[in-house]
Amino acid sequence: MESGEARPVWFVFSGMGSQWAGMARHLMRLPTFAASVQRSARALVPHGVQLVHALTEAPDAAFDDVVTSFVCIAAVQVALVDVLRELGVRPDGIVGHSVGEIGCAYADETLTGAQAVLAAYWRGRSIIDAELAPGAMAAVGLSWEQCEARCPPDVVPACHNAADSVTVSGPVAAVDAFVAELSAEGTFARRVNSSGVAFHSKYIAAAAPLLRRSLERVIPAPRPRSPRWISSSLPKEQWDSDI
After folding, report:
1. Which domains does the chain show, CATH number per domain?
2. Where is the Malonyl-CoA:ACP transacylase (MAT) domain (predicted)?
3. Could you report the per-residue pLDDT of 120-136, keeping only the tens digit for each?
């Protein structure tokens, strides 16, 4: 840059949907990345998770399991942070979406690598153990305000992605009916693969106490996040709270 002024470096961590079969197969050629994944794998052994296999050899169908999706996303994000740290790259700002906030916690040094992948594991395990009713999610080409006005009573705006893009969440039949209604009028609407779970909605509330108990075991001494980490899960007025 001509001014000589350094530009801020931001780490951005994706959520569910960023996983795919073989997602770390080629990255495992990087010694630092591979060593990080092996550390994460050891942390997950007591829970029967074969992390290296999941990241390199497991088929697409394996990612229908939310546990597999979550631990793979978290482990890759932890390993990428480790690679960047070795290269001397440190973030000035950190932001993530959904399960990607676990990667934020590692980048912010509020969680260890083991704690990060275990938090991801228990996030998925809690969803399964709660035995939730089948749910669905869909991406729709509406503003947040339009979604609030148009969503059926049992469908909720869940993720505010952009000015004209929102992810909605709710029971399968209700989401499918809303998608069909919007599509019929020419508005973009498409189901997204959420492994049969209505994430980011009241429909997963039963998993919350299970997850909290697990996280209290995994993270016995929580550390506050730094101002670098901009939470996408909390409104701005709660960024300085203990949540």
Report:
1. 10-131+207-238 (3.40.366.10), 135-196 (3.30.70.250)
2. 12-242
3. 999 999 999 999 999 99
